[in-house]
Amino acid sequence: MSFNEGLDELITCRLDHVRRAVEPCTIVIFGASGDLTARKLIPALYHLFKDKQMPPDFRIVGFARREKTDASWRGELHEALTQFSRSKPVDETVWSAFAAKVHYCVGDISDAAAYQKLAGLIGSFSSAPLRQNLLFYLATMPSQFGMAAEYLHSVKLLHRGGEQGWQRLVIEKPFGHDLASASALNHELTRFAHEQQVFRIDHYLGKETVQNILTFRFSNSIFERLWNRDAVDHIQITVSEKLGVGGRGGYYEEAGALRDMVQNHILQVLALVTMEPPVSLDAEPIRDEKVKVLSAICRFQPDEVARRVVRGQYTAGSVGGESRGAYREEVKVDPRSNVETFVALKLFVDNWRWAGVPIYLRTGKALPISASEVRVQFKPTPNVLFAAQCGTRLDANALTLRLQPNEGISLRFNGKVPGVGYGLRPVRMHFGYDAEFGAYTSEAYERLLLDAMGGDATLFIRRDEVEQAWQIVDSIRAGWDGVGLDDREFYAAGSWGPRLAHELLAQSGHAWREPQLIK
Ligand SMILES: NC(=O)c1ccc[n+]([C@@H]2O[C@H](COP(=O)([O-])OP(=O)(O)OC[C@H]3O[C@@H](n4cnc5c(N)ncnc54)[C@H](OP(=O)(O)O)[C@@H]3O)[C@@H](O)[C@H]2O)c1
Q1: Which fold would CATH assign to domain 205-231+239-372+444-506?
Q2: Rg (CA), the chain
Q3: Which atom, in ligand 1's list, is nearest to the CA of 251?
């Protein structure tokens, strides 16, 4: 057996240990005629089926107001699949077998009678597991989640306690727009389902590279020993997007970069990077550790917000050679909007491991490239030996976890430039997912849907995680309350945000590292 084959076997053993069997079930998608269903959910379910990952038997029931029949919905889904599938062309034999399990139920979420009809359809399925193991995917507006749960409970499709089969609710962000609304939503849902039955999706957690953060940290002793305030100088997390808000202006006006990206994706990544080792890889120990570290993040006092948080909004500019209008000119955006399309902030995790280590987060739209990465910057050496060659510029080691694109991990260190002199230059060791494992194309939603069917909540967000994250975000928003953007907070599309974002780091002698599109 070669070294690599040995590695493969080890990895597979690990996954088999963690994965649970998926029982036959019915997946009910509320919002069946929507964008998420067509672009993500159906392609993910089709690929799971094609890859023989679906349970031995299953049904998919779409629920929405628009009049459709089983046949017409299947036709629409086939069209969507042709457009959005990750493997083209669609395999028609697989599709026919898949489509035979797909049904459509016309109904309004606010209409009690529609749930009777839904219950009738599910009740007509041939086996008990198909009638009792029910995954309700709420791909609709959050204001409808509570109502759907209540009606499902009233027609006995959702049992709080699982006396017959299992029932789960999968919900999409936004999970509220502040702590109060998130708590109210959580309260509403848990009137009719236990917290363990609620699966809050953050598709970021379905990404291989995000999951790999824990594997990397806790299966490699050389890095974990340095993962603390003694060795780490600071941490940077960047999630940049080239796109502007496009057609989502209406949504974005209510959200902004802080709520849209920081509250969920970025704080989740930060939690995985900074949390303590869990006692096991099960869902609750991992989520317990995430909550602990989120609760250790210092909340912002109103007067700290101006010093430690920079917001920005894009003006007209050019991204990748294409001209881009200002945010205020986007469709459904107020021409005097003060909504932030960029945010950069400095925070501290006030615990034993991280006290005093600055952690910088930044995200924005209309930035030069789309990339997500975590950079752990280690402390420099005393620099007594190479001062003559490098002055104070001797680069410190840095480890970059590239989450997308070109997923991989890079370690930066100094090397001697060949030759008779003693020149130094930073060089890098790089691990690329593609090069090592071949192109891995599975979508985040495939993994997340499979886990939801299997009852594995590890990659889903627990109520207290959501609430901790809102406390942090609310403490920042309180500092912005009623304060409009000033001239220094605007940035040209295609730049890396307002100058203030660079000054934020410069105050502590740090600088943002621009993500490199390395292969
Ligand atoms: N699209 C994405 O990539 C994405 C990403 C992350 C999160 N999300 C979240 O996922 C949810 C769905 O997003 P989406 O983009 O798919 O929205 P969408 O395209 O506007 O679809 C909304 C769906 O909800 C249905 N619906 C609305 N009111 C209804 C009612 N009273 N009764 C029954 N069905 C109703 C609509 O169907 P009818 O009009 O036929 O009733 C439609 O199928 C939202 O909460 C969104 O924030 C979406």
Answers
A1: Dihydrodipicolinate Reductase; domain 2 (3.30.360)
A2: 24
A3: 47
